[in-house]
Amino acid sequence: MKRIRNLLNTFSPIPLSGWLLGCMAAVLLEYHFGAQVAYQLYLPNIPVLFGITELFGALKELRPQVVPGVLGYNLLLYILPTLLVARLAAPLMNRFAASLEKLPTWLAALLHLAAFYGILHLWAGISDYRALVVKLTLIAVILTVSLNIINGWLGEFSCSHPGFMAVGAYCSSYLSLKLFTDSKLFGPALLDPSLGPWLFPLILLVSGLAAAVSSLIVAIPSFRTRGDYLAVISLAFMFMVKSAIENMPFLGGPSGLSSQPDWSSLPVIFAWTCLCVWTAHNFTVSIRGKAMNAVRDNETAASAMTVNTRSVKMTAFMFGAFWAGVAGGLAAHLVRFINPASYGLQTLAETLAMVYFGGLNSIAGSILGAVSISALSEGLKPLNHWKWIVIPLLLILIMIYRSNGLIAFTELNVRQLTRARKQGDRNNAD
Predict the structure, then answer these.
(1) Which CATH architecture has domain 128-415?
(2) Rounded to an integer, what distance in angstroms lies between the CA atom of residue 322 and that of residue 303?
(3) CA 351/CA 162 separation, integer angstroms
(4) Which of 56, 123, 405, 422 is the most buried (most CB within 10 A)?
(5) What is the structure's pLDDT at 4?
(6) Are the C-beta atoms of residues 124 and 131 closer than 8 Å to each other?
């Protein structure tokens, strides 16, 4: 234990900017020398997701000789460069972080986000598959954060998120195809297609608002129900949306819609994800957020303390539905195909797993849950149907030993994350 403590103290003076610098060095090394290192380690190509897929593929096909190569690749191009550069640059990065403390918090956060995006863009640019996984993971973060508002801070159990996502996906697809695309279903474009990427944010806002308005179908009955009753109502809403779309020929019916414009680029999705996290953080730390916690803990007592519980529930549902609609619009223009079957029980199960794995009442937990489950889902693909045994077993263990998730009830403290560090300082952000 003493050795572990001493090792942690060795890296404790590294600020967040130092770790970002170390990650950038590792990604640059992989970008320039990844193929050569993979060849020398007898790997067929550069590991896509840190070798997770290759490791499980080797497990399935009984090829243990792949394991040392993958571990060596991660050690040489990720672990050692990151630790070495971050530790050597710690004094310089601490001075940099100290200078950032004089700036407004939002500006310091933007600088760190710009550096993180540079790392993410470079890492994802090494292969198209990486880029797709990163985009889908960012959309999953939006979904998880928005559902955590309802299931975590409000304390209700909602199953309606796939329905909200479907509303946003179909609304955005209809607008983009009708206004900016020549198609057999909708006819010639009504506007110049070159305007589409510039008006895409407006389309996403309209889609989010459509999902928020549709959430009133769940929110209004929820005024008189809680627990299992709300779960049944919200689940019924999901099937209502799915059935309604299947019986709308002008939206493609059961066949769905395709050929949406490819407007969900990595910068666009990253920007919307950051906006979602920022607004969710401000919402949860506001007076309305404290009111949600009061309703969650004891609705009767909250009502006695003059908290308008109906208004709080409606606001939370509409906020969560808005961002689910935005996520649906982004996903529709990323995959460029949607149909009613895409918004069923499997989507609901995956989103709930992300929320409860990461942690309730925690934006950081939502991010952790979305990234972890997305990475596991992709990494376990070589195991085929066995992955739907491994992931539920992992969730069962989490629910037994950490019933509220890995990092539940943890606020995101940006100022503490970006501050300078001192020797022996291992405090994490709240």
Answers:
(1) Orthogonal Bundle (1.10)
(2) 26
(3) 9
(4) 405
(5) 65
(6) yes
